[in-house]
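Q: What would this chain look like folded?
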Amino acid sequence: MKNTVPPAKKTVAESFALMKGPDAENAVPGDLVIHESAVCSIIRRVVTGIEGISRLTGSSFVDNIAEIVRSRKIQDRAIVLHFSENTVSVEISVYIYFGFSIPEVASSLQKAVTDAVSSLTGLGVSGVNVNVRGIDEVPAEETEGSEQA
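A: My prediction, written as structure tokens:
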């Protein structure tokens, strides 16, 4: 009987691959593939839960044209991911409601995104950059509701 060495256990980071588009079809059976769009989806859900954030936004006139011709959703263009080894850095472009502290909202968003991406994907998050592109007025129904309370 031959002596066989059991295969080394893979770390969480080694057991999955980050893939974009059709490259995922070439993944080895049994590997976990996390698409870039899945990470963006996690981040979109986090952003909508942060108090003081009005919306995600594209960053340029070209982004707005792309939305018109339906080449990409504005939410996808508002989130940019940079992968390196087993980590990801995130850039998010948002509008914030008037009256909220920009540094506090940005800090809450950075922490929430880091926690969600790390816990749901196993990836390390090397940084979350928040680009505040503008300020929106608080919707009338929200201000009326707080005045009645």
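The two ends are 79 Å apart (CA to CA).
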